[in-house]
Write a structure and sequence with these properties.
mainly alpha, two-stranded antiparallel ribbon, about 120 residues, Arc Repressor Mutant, subunit A, about 60% helix
Length: about 120
């Protein structure tokens, strides 16, 4: 084997391993509250802090990700609209987001169905 052939074989093997790692990473899931989320949907920046969310906050975030309004979320969870806003503000603080718009985008990324 020549040097070029050895190098090519190593590169092919490296690419095979990288594809295998990518496939495995997509299959991994993380628990967020009562829900299992594909690891590939969670931004690196939020991996640690997202575990600090309460089950109630995650439930609010899930409905937010589905595009529900605060009043709808309050009705669905049998809480007041003010409590929904408190949960939203707490999540923004815990996840170090600039506001509800960023939270809305993150919620959509995590919970919006792909199909």
């Amino acid at each position: 084997m020549s040097i070029d052939t050895d190098e090519e074989a190593r590169l092919r093997e490296l690419m095979r391993l990288l594809r295998k790692a990518d496939d495995r990473a997509q299959e991994e899931e993380r628990s967020i509250g009562d829900f299992r989320i594909p690891r590939s949907r969670i931004p690196e920046r939020h991996l640690g802090s997202i575990a600090a969310l309460t089950k109630a906050e995650v439930a609010v975030m899930r409905f937010l990700g589905w595009g529900r309004a605060n009043a709808d979320i309050a009705t669905l969870l049998a809480i007041s609209e003010n409590t929904v806003r408190v949960h939203l503000n707490n999540m923004c603080r815990k996840l170090e987001l600039d506001g509800v718009r960023e939270l809305n985008a993150l919620a959509g990324l995590l919970f919006h169905p792909l199909t």
